[in-house]
Amino acid sequence: MSEVEETIKRLSAHKGVEGIVVVNMEGISIRSTLDPEKTVQYAALITQLTAKARSVVRELDPQNDLTFLRIRSKKHEIMVSPDKEYILIVLQNPTN
Amino acid sequence: MEIVYVYQRKRKEFGRQPILSDCLAHPSTCLDILPDPQYARNYVERNPCSVEIQSLPDRSEHEVNTESISFTNRGILHLQGGWPKDVDPTDVEHTIRYRKKIEKDDEYLRVVKSLGDTMEHCIKQNNAIDIYEEYFAEINDAIEIEQPWAKSLNVYRDPNPIKRAATSVSWYPDDGHKIAVAYSVLQFQQMPANMSLDSYIWDIENPNIPDHTLTPQSPIVSLKYNPKDPHVLVGGCYNGLLSYWDVRKGSYPVDTSSIEKSHRDPVYNVAWVQSKSGSEFFSVSTDGQVLWWDIRKLAEPTESLLLDPEKNGNIVGGTVLDFETTMPTKFMVGAENGTVLMCNKKAKNPGEKITHIYPGHHGPIRALQRNPFFPKNFLTVGDWTAKIWAEDIRSPIMATKYGLSYLTDACWSPTRPSVFCTSKLDGTVDIWDNLFKQNEPTLTVQVCNAPLHSVKVQEHGKMFAATARDGTTTILELCDGLSRIQNNEKSTFSQMLEREAKREKTLESSARERRIKGQQKRPTSASMRPTAQALEELIKSADDDFFLTIEQAGFQIKPAQQANEVPEVAQSANP
User: Measured between alpha carbons, how far is B10 from B116 in angstroms, rounded to an integer?
Assistant: First the structure.
């Protein structure tokens, strides 16, 4: 348990990190540093997007798999690290 | 002639395949027709002619277009995740318990750790180098000399089966991602009975379906967004009523003015007024009235003005309005008879309201706008020309040539002080850049084949919308050269305007001096008409001069005259 906390704290300590969400494959957020409404939205939307991205990668090459997904927008960058069961989402504000 | 060759064959040999052999075996030619040179005389040898022969399979071309399928975008708002059946998402305790259960899972711990490491690597990457850094952002790109162009981006058609003309367009304030287009039929009594009354707001990205519909009591002729509150629009109707809409409240007007107090002719132009509440506007119509309204109380106008420039009871209908927020008390009205009236809102008595009258054009003024950079100069469009005026001078300081077709609307570019565009009845939009060329438009774009009713440039200066009589609205994009301000453009253009203004002033003053001098020469200048006797003398002397010159010239042309006279006489003799 404390390892999870430690990891999350370490990630939050980096410059520009705005929030962290851990989601399971069904779209339920397990742990989040953002407020509930945003968490739910991120959980739902990012899960769907990750599934789609993964299917794209696998369709292009069945041996391939999605390792990381980065969405850069004007205001911040959403970084998604997927796994079999869980997804780790981090919001970071770029350096400028 | 018949060529016959008889041969015998046994019956059992019928149907056998023919065995061909050289003619030498049976040297019996049936008929031999030799060339007869006589026939050659019927023919002429042709000059060497080239004949092309090609052996190709026949081909044909077909075009097929699928029926267009309409798409709509819909989104789903996801509220809660996929909780398993035993957990009730509304019960907070359940959810917390579920979460805690997962957090105790070993798998979870391991996964979070490994993912965290990957993530950390990327976060550090982001922090180390900003890959989206823009180098040399401060240095503006050099203005390339290129051919000016305007590209049409989208065309928005009237979705109703009976097409009406799109008479006016207004851009959404600030960012301009929507346009409001008013549809009506301006020809008198040409409206079919089941014509739809609606006007639409279009989202720029979606030309298939209007974003919002406005349903008035009678077709809207002019439509404007409130620059302070982008959800509010005011529209002037064909029957003289004014209504205002709030986009959030649906398609029926929030309020409409009462018919007795409104205009008696279609409201050709409305404009919002600078006021503390941001809710005042005024409207003009060809019935000669200019009325001020407050949208909170549309039952009656707050103020009214009759356009009576000669103060003799002849009311002149107004067709366009202009109001500049930097000059809140003055406004301008363009009239049906071609004059432009500059009026002062705060005048004490109605007689003082109209401060200046500019002679204007030969026909009704179709567009009137102050230059957003130089408010003392304004642009008017009427008949076949566009003219630029300065406030103090009676005659235009710059005028375009008489074009081939009637100009219907004009608009200054909000980003470049010397650029304006005009729309014409033949469906073209001319973009004039006074710094570049003054006697010709810099760019002419054929927008469509139908006459254009109005043109409006978006606030960023990059796009403009043109509306046409067949109900289509087209959005065009201007090249950078015409939308981005150049260095020193403001100062150069202001110098040009001053120079032209000075020229007009000197012309005016010299004309005035000449008139004064002319008056001074004749001391009895009270009545310029000569007395009866003097008049007869003048006539006689004029006659004498005339005949003298005829005689002097007559000697030279007399023979020709005689020759001409004779056939004329002959003709008159035989009618």
Answer: 104
